[in-house]
Amino acid sequence: MPLNSQNQMQLLSDILSNHSTDCCGSVSECEQVERLVKSLMVNADIHENVKPVLQEIYQYSQSGISSSDLTNHITTNKQNLSQWVTDMNSYS
């Protein structure tokens, strides 16, 4: 069963919140974030104001996938992660 845009936004928010709270994650989570963002960016139901946030999250996921120290990458972006979740929740 495919996820609708609301489910995708919630899943993305959950993953980012977990990264922020736990300051750790996995490459597979970053890959999941990448797939979610790609899907949301082409969805006409997504508010235009959230698309720049999604672009930032996409860059975060790309950097995380290729990072040699994922925990440090997540820790470095802790403040961004919290802000992105807040921003996404304000438009969903």
UniProtKB/TrEMBL annotation:
InterPro entries: YtzH (IPR025547). This is YtzH-like protein.
